[in-house]
Design a protein that fits this description.
By secondary structure, the protein is an alpha+beta fold. The protein is 16% helix and 27% strand.
Length: 108
C-alpha cells in the first residue's frame, strides 16, 4: 500500500462510536467505479476493529480489508480489469484516501 491521507481523529475509538455511516468511493483512473457507504456492513466498524484486535495487535497505518461494494470490474459488461500503470484510489469519508498504483510483480 502506498500513498494515503488520514483524518487526524481517525485513530480515536470515539470517532467510530459517534460516526456510524461513512461514504466510501473507489476510483479507477479518476472514474468513480464504486460508491456506497458503511450502513450496508453486516458488522459495525467498532465491532470489526474489536474483533480484529482480539486476533492480532493493530498498529498505526494497519488496514482492515473487509470487502467491496457493488461495481466489481469482472461483473461489468464489458468486464473491466486493472493493468500495470493504472491507479486505484479508495476514499472513505471523514477518514482519508488510499492511492495504489497497479504493478506487474512478475516483471520485477
Amino acid at each position: 500500500m502506498h500513498q494515503y491521507s488520514l483524518h487526524a481523529n481517525a485513530a480515536s475509538p470515539s470517532f467510530y462510536r459517534n460516526s456510524h455511516i461513512f461514504e466510501n468511493i473507489a476510483y479507477y483512473e479518476n472514474y468513480c467505479n464504486q460508491k456506497s457507504d458503511t450502513s450496508f456492513l453486516i458488522f459495525s466498524i467498532p465491532r470489526l476493529i474489536d474483533h480484529a484486535s482480539e486476533i492480532f495487535d493493530l498498529m498505526p497505518s494497519d488496514v482492515i480489508a473487509i470487502g467491496t461494494p457493488a461495481g466489481v470490474g469482472f461483473t461489468r459488461k464489458p468486464p473491466m480489469f486493472l493493468a500495470p500503470g493504472d491507479v486505484v484510489e479508495v476514499e472513505v469519508e471523514k477518514i482519508g484516501v488510499l492511492r495504489n498504483p497497479v504493478v506487474d510483480e512478475a516483471a520485477q
